[in-house]
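User: Good morning. I'm curious how flavin mononucleotide would be positioned relative to this chain. Could you predict the structure with it bound?
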Amino acid sequence: MELTEMIRSRRTILEYKPDKMDKDELLHLFNTAAYAPNHHMREPWKLKIYEDSARSSFGEKVVDSYIRLGLLKTKQPDKLAKARQGYDRFFNSVPYHILFYMEKQDDGGYVDDENFAAVCAFIQNFQLLAWEKGIGTMWTAKQTLLDEIFIRDVGLSPEKHKLVAVVQAGYPKKIPEAKERSAMGESLEWIHTSQIKGERAE
Ligand SMILES: Cc1cc2nc3c(=O)[nH]c(=O)nc-3n(C[C@H](O)[C@H](O)[C@H](O)COP(=O)(O)O)c2cc1C
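Assistant: Good morning! Here's the predicted structure, ligand included:
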């Protein structure tokens, strides 16, 4: 597949087949994704990959966080129990859940921003490389990634680590329709040399 076709045809996949991908193939994709740009070759990406029975316990931690943060609409115990069952089914229906994180270096300063950007570049490389091999992904990033209890629950430290994303990966059961993008003409401006002076916004 050509790169243009790969970028345009990739979809966020919500439903997966149960089949697991070959681990060597996955490792190969990660090794290629690591050619993402990253300043000073810090290679800040770190991954935890949840599979098999670890998916349920990871899913439980995610749902605990959703409840803590008030992200679920209901507070009724029976409805919460049903929601938990639904999430458990979802977490077990996806072969791999990949938690991307990084070590903090300057407590939210520009180095951390650079590293965060590099991890995002890695993730998109991975999504496209996976798509080329017929593997679907879903990039998720909710407030949970900032939840200090959740960060500890996954064995990390809010002081030392920043969570970047959870990405689901597996062979797609259903490929959603394309979501068209807006034409870029509205979102960009060409700046001519004559316009450079007096540009500072109020
Ligand atoms: C930072 C980030 C967070 C996202 N979070 C979610 C999410 O929580 N749930 C979800 O279904 N998709 C999530 N997505 C995927 C987007 O919804 C998806 O890319 C968008 O709808 C366009 O669809 P497409 O990827 O199929 O083109 C996220 C994507 C990014 C980059």
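The chain is about 40% helix and 15% strand. The helical segments are 3-9, 23-33, 54-68, 77-93, 110-132, 148-153.
Let me know if you'd like a different ligand tried.
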